[in-house]
Amino acid sequence: MEEVIRNRKIIHVDMDAFYASVEQMDNPELRGKPVAVGGSENRGVVSAASYEARKFGVRSALSGTLAKRYCPELIFVRPRFDRYKEISQKIRKIFFDYTDLVEPLSLDEAYLDVTQNKKGNLSASLIAQEIRKRIFEEVGLTASAGISINKFIAKVASDYNKPNGQKTVNPDEVISFLENLPIKKFYGVGKVTAEKMYQLGIFTGLDLKGKPLEFLEKHFGKSGTYYYYIVRGIHNSEVKPERIAKSVATEHTFDENLTSEIFMLERLEVIAGELERRLKRYNVAGKTVTLKIKYSDFTLQTRSKTLPYFISDKSLLLETAKELLYQERMKDSVRLLGISLNNLNTEEKKTVAVQLKFDF
Predict the structure, then answer these.
(1) Terminus of the chain with fewer CB atoms < 10 Å: N or C?
(2) 3-state SS assignment for residue 14
(3) Cβ-count burial of 76 within 10 angstroms (0-12 exposed, 13-18 middle, 19+ buried)?
(4) Is the dihedral of CA 30, 35, 40, 46 positive or negative?
(5) Rounded CA separation 350/242 (Å)
(6) What is the CATH number of domain 248-344?
(7) DSSP H helices in 247-354
(8) pLDDT tens digit string along 218-265?
(9) Beta bridge partners of 300
(10) Are 223 and 359 in contact (CB under 8 A)?
(11) Which residues are catalytically annotated?
(12) pLDDT of residue 357
């Protein structure tokens, strides 16, 4: 059995409602108002929502029509990803003032390993506080942070005092923190998984910890192994700023299961757009498109097609994903969709960072 590594100091920095906050920063008329980035009241889905909009239940991946119904005063704005990338690069420069061990997950969040840092500061909590202060002063946005001994706990902790706050889980607090944590707060336990755990009598980390490995594997497959270790504070993945990408992927888990191909196509359009932006950021293209479908019963299905040429644009990604979607009929409602691109032209490319993925 793996042991808990306690001597690392990991920070997870997560920008607060990043896309919407950038729009409110750039347009003072939007400040204090409910804002949705992406979608419209007639079509499409929301990419991001301001905290003012979230109070009404507006969230990412929600249809624009439903979002407007939840919040009649909602203001839709078109996304400006070039602007978000520009802001993200400024934030990332601040990170590198403290450590070279920076692992971006997306434009608005990253892991930092500050065990050995450029400032010689022994307190990861003070480093996180200083980073958040600099982001606010130099960029104009607020950020939240989680600090602990590994990525998983830091990620959970960063959501603890949002927005504009931080949470430190010290080594001697890890076990009690996880035992007292509601199961729905565990990173990687979505709405459907939480409901399944409730039915099995698992409501807190302590309940989860009380289940043997064989039980968790029986009910959750290989994800059960993941749950078994994380509730014991074991997640020894290192912060790796650069890896050679074998594939680039984007996927969404939905709060409500999708029951028709029409809804799935709407979501795939958003996913393809995000994947295109990620490919452009890494300056890579690929030949093999894979559609990932996870059904409500947790069964996973993948369908792939290899093209005779490299692609990276949204239209071709979406066209191929549609073709894969209609290869066969849905067997159940769908809780997760993803598109990935393999067979990348990375031989001539520099090493690129890829998003951290937990296998749920």
Answers:
(1) N
(2) strand
(3) middle
(4) positive
(5) 10
(6) 3.30.1490.100
(7) 261-282, 314-325
(8) 999 888 999 999 999 999 889 988 655 678 999 888 878 888 888 889
(9) 294
(10) yes
(11) 109
(12) 35
Which residue has 């729905």 as its token pair? Answer: 184
Annotated ligand binding at 159? The verdict is no
* Residue whose entry in the numeric block shows the structure tokens 């996973």: 300
- Kindly tell me the burial class for residue 191, based on how many C-beta atoms sit within 10 Å of its own C-beta (0-12, 13-18, 19 or more): middle
Q: Strand ranges (DSSP E) for the chain? A: 10-15, 35-37, 48-49, 75-77, 102-106, 109-113, 143-148, 166-168, 248-258, 286-295, 300-311, 334-344
**Which amino acid type is present at position 221?**
G
Of 38, 33, 24, 23, the residue nearest 56 (C-alpha) = 33
Task: List phi, psi (to 5°) of 208.
Answer: -65, -40
pLDDT in tens, 1-48: 566 777 899 999 999 999 999 999 999 999 999 999 988 888 778 889
Structure tokens at 45: 């889905």
- Tracing tokens 């997560």 back to the chain, one arrives at 14
Dihedral sign computed on CA atoms, order 219, 271, 315, 354: negative
Domain boundaries, the chain: 10-16+82-174, 18-80, 181-224, 248-344
Residue 175 host element (H or E): helix 174-180
**What's the pLDDT at 7?**
87
Question: What is the C-alpha separation between 13 and 138, in angstroms, rounded?
Answer: 16
**Is the alpha carbon torsion for 113, 118, 124, 129 positive or negative?**
negative
CA distance 288 to 247: 9
| Domain over 10-16+82-174 is classified CATH 1.10.10.60 | no
CA 233/CA 228 separation, integer angstroms: 9
Q: Where are the beta strands (DSSP E) in 107-163?
A: 109-113, 143-148
Q: What angle do CA 82, 250, 154 make, to 5 degrees?
A: 90
The model carries a pTM of 0.71
Q: Is 313 annotated as a binding residue?
A: no
Q: What's the CATH code, domain 181-224?
A: 1.10.150.20
Structural domain 18-80, CATH architecture? 3-Layer(aba) Sandwich (3.40)
